[in-house]
Fold:
Amino acid sequence: MNKGKCFLVGAGPGDPGMLTLRGREALERAGVVVYDNLANPELLGFAPAEAELIYAGKKPGDHAMTQGDINRLLVEKTKAGHLVVRLKGGDPFVFGRGAEEAEALAVAGLDFEVVPGVSSALAGPASAGIAVTRRGLNEEVTVFTGHQDPESAEGREFYRRLGARGGTLVMLMGLERLGGIAREMQKGGTSPDLPVAVVRRATMGDQVVVRGVISKIAAIVVKEGLRPPAIVVFGEVAAADHKLPGARPLSGRRIVVTRSRTQASKLAAALRDLGADVYEMPLIKREPPKDLREFAELVQDAHSYEWIVFTSANGVEAFFEIFDKLYNDAREIGGVRFAAVGLATAKSLKQRHYYVDLVAEDFHSDSLAETLRKETDVENVKILVVRPEETSGSLAVNLTKMGAIVDEAIAYRTVPETEDRTRARQRFSEEGADLIVFTSSSTVRNFFALKLPLPPDLKFASIGPVTTKTLAEFKAKPSIEAKTHDINGLVESILLSERS
Structure:
């Protein structure tokens, strides 16, 4: 069981949803992840929190490690008994130098497995509506890289041979040499009117596609300001109209999600489905309360209360993590009734097959006491309020004023997320964003504490009035506030804002 193993995993073309199931399984078990520049850093969120993350990316003129260093690193970490994931953009064996890494591991006598990925050579054109094979247009596909210098003798010969070849040609890398490559291909026999398509950041929310003919495509790329990474498709298929569906509502919008790493996926997935380029910048994380023993004792006595009130889904999770350790039978909770602040909190209880007797009308703690008062007489009723440490005790105070006998169970602490495992903060600083979404006051405070440079046109979205009030502390006003204060309401409000 202590024997090391290395997985050479294809990360796919960019969209996190195109990672294979086997690739995700490997990431979720990894002790060490060595990742490339073209592997979407959002995928690092699948790795365990304790996994060691090592960047080994390569950009033109900027190599974090040489290939020899990477090979030695994989051997060293695998030999030390770790489960290592080498995360590579696209497919590890399609111009990814995965074969060299596999050979180094084999020579060292180490166990390894290749996990193929969706190659950008095929996914990139497909995402732009280009079928690289199409009956009646072409009978072959050639995939090549633009690494060779078209000014060199070898480069001239190579690209002229490609120009004489015909069929569909797909070029990975080499966008900065496109002018010289196109020139040499025409000298090899390619018609100057051959259709060409360039797909930048294929499969991502900010994907860009430009089309032209080979004699003019380099000038078009310069005019449009296209930069790598990009895929270039040469051939009649590049002009074919496949009548793709129209752009999705949030296409081209870059949106930052600030929820905790464990909670961000639902919101991020909903925004990606609408076409947004989403990257997750977790700013908070959940930790046990300072007095875990006291919390556990209150959970143990939960059956003695008539009502248990949960103010967040995290509180539900923290409560039942302890309850399930103390009891083997859910019926041990007795005849207690449940109240919840917000639909997400109620849903978390329902997923555990508990009936939710009451949900706060306005989805925040201050309204729950009034909603409970309308529902029943709480005088001399024992109520347990489960809440995070950093929120106020106003709910307990209001219930006590109504005559209830109230105990508070501090279930967890929300603390700042100090790690930037997916390099989202770096990306925000370099590329900016159109919209940043806040789902709690703590995400607002932690974001502004980072003092990141803010793009001039950056807009804010808030999940509700409490979060909006916190934004005001930093002289920031959201352009979007959810009408219903949950994730679905937030997504709907963002969509409505985009359409207006």
Notes: Residues 294-414 form a domain with the Rossmann fold fold (CATH 3.40.50.10090). The radius of gyration is 27 Å. The mean pLDDT is 91.
